[in-house]
Amino acid sequence: MAGRPVTVRMARWSAEHPWRAIALWAVFVAVCFVGGNAAGLNEATSGDQAIGEAGRASLIVDAGDFDDPAVENVLITSRGGALDATAAKAAADDAAARLRTVTGVAEVGQPVPARDGSALLLPITMSGDPETASDRVQPLRDATATVQTAYPQVRVEQVGGPSIGQALDDTLGKDFKRAELLSLPVTLAILIIAFGALIAASVPVLLALSSVAAAMGLSTLASHLVPATDTTSPVILLIGMAVGVDYSLFYIRREREERAKGRSGLDAVEIAAETSGHAVVVSGFAVIIAMAGLLLAGDVVFSSLAVGSILVVAVAVTGSLTVLPALLAKLGRWVDRPRVPLLWRLTAPRTGRHGTPRPPRLWPALLRPALRAPVVTLVISVGLLLALAAPALGMKLKFPGMEDLPRTTPAMQAYDRLTAAFPSTGTNHVVAVRAPAEQADRVRAALTDLATRAAGDPLFAPTEADGPKIQVSDDRRVSVLDVATPYASRDDRSVRSLETLREDLVPAELRGIPGIEYAVGGSVADSEDYAQHVRDKLPLVMGFVLVLTFLVMVLTFRSVVVAASSILLNLLSAGAAYGLLVLVFQGDWAEGLLGFTSMGAIVSWLPLFLFVVLFGLSMDYHVFVVSRIREGIRAGMPNRDAVSYGITSSAGVVTSAAIVMVGVFSIFATLSTIDMKQLGIGLAAAILLDATIIRGVVLPSLMTMLGDANWWAPRFLRQRPASAPADPPAPAPELVPVP
Fold it and tell me: What mean pLDDT do residues 107-134 have?
């Protein structure tokens, strides 16, 4: 027993002491979850998230300690034709009188007419913490709605950061609730189809949910070392459900397969631990390595995602090696109850004359081209995937702007009318300056000249009638000027206006002032600087992930060729996913089909995050399939028969796991925001390509073509052969009839 792998020893102890293992797991999950909630979440600050020159501008503004209250606006426009100035003025006066009596309103300004007379704007300053303004804005919206009822001849609506934030929170909240409500039943339904039994289908969901709960608590504790962002929890749920279900699928299918051969429950668990359990450990380690690559990005958002993902994968692996064997041992053959009659007959493990799993008839037919003509099949399939990946060479990266938010809410419709009537309230560049206090007057004069020069350039919006608004800190060391552009934040002209400011106007006006420090920020700068940050960090992250994954695969399979082919296949899969994203989202042909408005680019953070997630999750399938192929080789099968055995014997579990992932990821594609749609489509398409074309066509044709060369390794690796499987499969000519 002492010489058996650690996965087997852990599984055997859990199977022999099931109640202890289950109790220990329950205590572990509870302690993690409760302890995390007790410690509280340490959220990342704006300083933690500062990237590039835009980040420096944000830090300079923060240093000024400005009073920056939340601001709302009552916008009065015509319902058609010219605006009735008298009715608009009366509505504005009524709104001002009502809003002054509303709790949470600090000040109501004077009505401001649009230059073309198409609108009247009443500014409102809210009291209290700006961060919670969205939670307190409803009384203001109610007062504005009352004014609208009193003046039906004009359109009276409220728009501003808090009201847009409230509308967006409501929309996204409904989206995520729908996604959560759909994901569990979809996952459970797919697993019922995969297993044909309710208990067997419920166990992976139970393990995945408990892993997510434990990881949520651990990530909250970890946030005191690496600050968390608001994207951490959704990603833990996404990754945790994916790997938790996958690992359970691998393990349970192998345990059922061994029981179908007539083995006792304990022996079946042991063999599942030695084979599928080993594959789970290797694939989990590969996912952790991929996620750890995000730490090299030097970005708190990616760092928090990395920590959360690493924790949930580690917990899921631990659960699959401990509590899962305990559950299977305790349930015994009850894991296959209650059975769904038709599905059970289709999915129940079947064995051939030699005790090997008998595959569905479909897979031998699909594999025939790869096994009979591997070179031709490989060239055609790789050529198609490279053609799909080619559009990725033209990938553009941008942050979504206000124009990319859903237009289904009145707040966003009002925002469009606001920016049309008052261009300076739309996209703004922020010129942030820090200089000695004695230079404050000189800085102010330079910023005034800068605003005047910008106003004469068509790339910028005209200045307001009362001149440029320059904020100066109480200590006179920090000055801030907003320079507006009339174009959307992702419009190329907005980017050119940013370049004009950074390369020409700002240096020309501010250079030469002693002790000065300046930077240009704002939404356009955030987008451009973050995109450049991703481009700079992507090679470093990719290199780290590729090198370490290669080493893990070499040590696991004792083969340099298998490791190298693993890397190449995963790169091919990721490239095809990138190309598909560009095809779908940088054009407009799929807008009606998927319900989005193209932003002409891919969301800036997506390529880096997508790469590590896909690379990690793809290894789940790859390790599992190649492990089964190696079992065939060790049993003395010829290479082609071993490839056939490995693909067909793992086809059911890989297909089931892929369908679960594709189903869950596709739900994210139904969400309202463009970044979630791109994430959902990118992940679902990549997993589908990986589990079908890559594993079903490219991998078998490549390994058949290479033959015995698949297992080549330097002598120092060959001197440490891995132990043979507990019960290797006998060669089975009837498995896949290949002439």
Answer: 90
**Segment (H or E) for 108:** strand 105-108
Q: At what angle do helices 606-634 and 639-668 cross, to 10 degrees?
A: 150
Question: Whole-prediction pTM value?
Answer: 0.81
Mean pLDDT value across residues 3-29: 90
Q: Does domain 1-40+196-347 have CATH number 3.20.20.70?
A: no
State which fold the 412-526 domain adopts: Alpha-Beta Plaits (3.30.70)
CATH architecture of 64-167: 2-Layer Sandwich (3.30)
d(CA 282, CA 699): 19
Using CA atoms, how far apart are residues 529 and 336, in angstroms rounded to an integer? 55
Q: At 72, which helix (H) or strand (E)?
A: strand 71-78
What percent of the chain lies above the pLDDT cut of 70?
93
Return d(Cα 670, Cα 666) in angstroms, integer: 7
With CA atoms as reference, report the closest residue to 290 among 678, 612, 579. Answer: 612
The CB density around residue 719, as the number of other CB atoms within 10 Å, is 9
Would you say residue 197 has pLDDT above 50? Answer: yes
Average pLDDT of span 287-298 = 90
Q: What DSSP string runs through 672-736? A: SSHHHHHHHHHHHHHHHHIIIIIIIIIHHHHHHHHGGGGG---HHHHTSPPPPPSSPPPP-TTTS
pLDDT of res. 46: 73
- List where CATH 1.20.1640.10 sits in the chain: 1-40+196-347
Which ranges in 558-605 belong to alpha helices (H)? 560-585, 591-594
Q: What is the pLDDT of residues 596-633, one digit of tens each?
A: 888 889 988 889 988 988 888 888 788 888 988 998 99
Rg (CA), the chain: 30
Token readout for 522 is: 């704002």
Residue 18: CA count within 13 A, CB half-sphere: 13
* Amino acid 618: pLDDT: 81
Range name among 53-57, 58-62, 356-360, 732-736 with the lowest pLDDT average? 732-736
Q: Each residue of 358-408: pLDDT tens digit?
A: 555 677 778 889 999 999 999 999 999 999 999 999 999 888 877 777 777
pLDDT of residue 425: 59
In whole angstroms, what is the distance from residue 442 CA to residue 597 CA? 45
Report d(CA 99, CA 103) in Å as an integer.
Answer: 8
What confidence score (pLDDT) does residue 126 get? 94
DSSP state of 487: S
HEC assignment per residue over 651-685: HHHHHHHHHHHHHHHHHHCCCCCHHHHHHHHHHHH
Tokens 């499969």, located at residue: 729
- The three-class DSSP label of residue 626 is helix
Q: Where in the chain is the domain with CATH 3.30.70.360?
A: 64-167
d(CA 347, CA 334): 16
More confident residue, 735 or 324: 324
Which residue spans of the chain are classified as CATH 3.30.70.100? 412-526
Nearest by Cα to 398 from 430, 431, 427: 427
For β-strands 427-434 and 478-485, DSSP reports them as antiparallel
What is the C-alpha to C-alpha distance for residues 671 and 183, in angstroms, rounded to an integer?
Answer: 13
Spatial strand order of the sheet with 427-434 comes to 470-472, 478-485, 427-434, 517-522
Distance CA 273, CA 254 (A): 9
Report the pLDDT value the prediction gives residue 736, as an integer from 0 to 100: 40
Q: Supply the angle between the helices 52-63 and 523-557 in degrees, to the nearest 10.
A: 120
Cβ-contact 722, 715 below 8 angstroms: no
Contact (Cβ atoms closer than 8 angstroms) between residue 484 and residue 428:
yes
Under the phi-then-psi rule, with left for phi > 0, alpha for psi from -120 to 50, and beta for the rest, what region is 2?
Answer: alpha
Confidence of residue 660 (pLDDT cuts 50, 70, 90): confident
For the chain, give the mean pLDDT.
86
